[in-house]
Write a structure and sequence with these properties.
Length: 278
C-alpha cells in the first residue's frame, strides 16, 4: 500500500502553501516564501522520526544514493559490494561514481547475505551497500560488524524500507549513510524525491553541497556563496517536499496497514501450506 493511494486534503494544503507564495525553489527568497520552508521541514521531521542526526532531501532515491557515495568518498576504481537482487538504481549510482559494483549473494531475507561479503572483498573494496528489499531488512547488524572489521564504508539502500527497524533502530541509520526513495510506489511519496541521512556532520555538509552545484550555503546571499567542491543538481523542489511533509505525517498509518496486510498474507500462506519465505 504505497502512500499515493491516500492523497487528501493534507497534501493539498501543504502544496497550496507553496503555490500561494510562488516560491518553488528550496533555497532563498526568504521574504517572499512567508515562512514556508517545506524541504527544511521535511528534513527536520524525517530526522526526528528515524533518530538520525542529519537529513538532506534529493530529487530521487537514485540521486540520494549518488550523493551518499560521493559524500562518503567513493570514486574511480573503488569496488562496492552490492546484492544482485535490487532495483537497477543501486548499481547505477555505483557506476556514476566511477566505482565498480561487485555482486555478493542474497539470503532468505532477499537481502545481502553477510556470509557472502567476505569472499567478495578485495584490496580495492571500499564500501558495502546492502539493500533492504520490499520493506524487509537485511541482517544489518551482522553486515555492520563485518564493515567495522574490514574498515569498509557502510551505506544502506533503504529506498524501499522507510519505517522498518531492527531492535528499535531504523533502517538507514546503521551505517555511515542511509538512502530513501519517495517515488510514486514507495511507502510515502513526493511524486519524485529521496533523502540521504547520516550522523556524520562532514558527510552531511558534503552532501548538501554536492547536491547543489557545490554551494556551501554559508550566509544569506546565494550569489555570494562559496563553491569548495564540484557538485551537480540533485535538488528537490518545494512542491515535491510539500507533498512529502503531508505524507510523512501519515507514515504510522501506512505502516500499520502494511503490517496488517502482511499478517493476512502469512495466515493464508500457512493455511495453504506454502513453504517459501514471506
Amino acid at each position: 500500500m504505497p502512500g499515493f493511494e491516500h492523497f487528501g486534503e493534507e497534501e493539498r494544503k501543504e502544496v497550496l502553501d507553496v503555490l500561494e507564495t510562488g516560491v518553488l525553489f528550496r533555497y532563498g527568497f526568504d521574504q517572499a516564501r512567508k515562512g514556508h520552508w517545506k524541504a527544511k521541514m521535511f528534513e527536520s521531521e524525517l530526522s526526528k522520526r528515524i533518530a538520525s542526526t542529519y537529513c538532506h532531501l534529493c530529487s530521487s532515491g537514485t540521486a540520494a544514493l549518488t550523493v551518499a557515495l560521493a559524500s562518503c568518498g567513493i570514486g574511480a576504481g573503488d569496488e562496492v559490494i552490492i546484492p544482485p537482487f535490487t532495483f537497477v538504481a543501486t548499481m547505477e549510482a555505483v557506476l556514476y561514481a566511477g566505482a565498480i559494483p561487485v555482486f555478493a549473494d542474497i539470503d532468505q531475507t532477499l537481502c545481502l547475505d553477510p556470509d557472502a561479503i567476505e569472499p567478495a572483498v578485495s584490496s580495492r573494496t571500499k564500501a558495502v551497500v546492502p539493500v533492504h528489499m520490499c520493506g524487509s531488512m537485511a541482517r544489518i547488524k551482522e553486515i555492520k560488524d563485518i564493515c567495522l572489521q574490514k574498515h569498509l564504508i557502510l551505506i544502506e539502500d533503504a529506498c524501499q524500507a522507510l519505517g522498518a527497524s531492527c531492535d528499535g533502530k531504523y533502517a538507514g541509520t546503521f551505517g555511515h549513510a542511509g538512502c530513501f526513495s519517495f517515488d510514486p510506489v514507495k511507502t510515502i511519496t513526493c511524486g519524485e524525491g529521496g533523502a540521504m541521512v547520516t550522523d556524520h556532520r562532514e558527510i552531511y555538509e558534503t552532501a548538501a553541497g554536492f547536491a547543489d552545484h557545490g554551494h556551501d550555503h554559508i550566509g544569506n546571499d546565494r550569489g555570494l556563496e562559496g563553491h569548495p567542491i564540484l557538485g551537480g543538481n540533485f535538488r528537490i523542489s518545494e512542491l515535491n517536499a510539500a507533498v512529502g511533509v503531508a505524507q510523512l505525517h501519515k507514515l504510522d498509518r501506512f505502516l500499520e496497514t502494511q503490517r496488517t496486510n502482511k499478517k493476512s498474507l502469512k495466515n493464508i500462506k500457512k493455511k495453504i501450506g506454502l513453504n517459501y519465505a514471506l
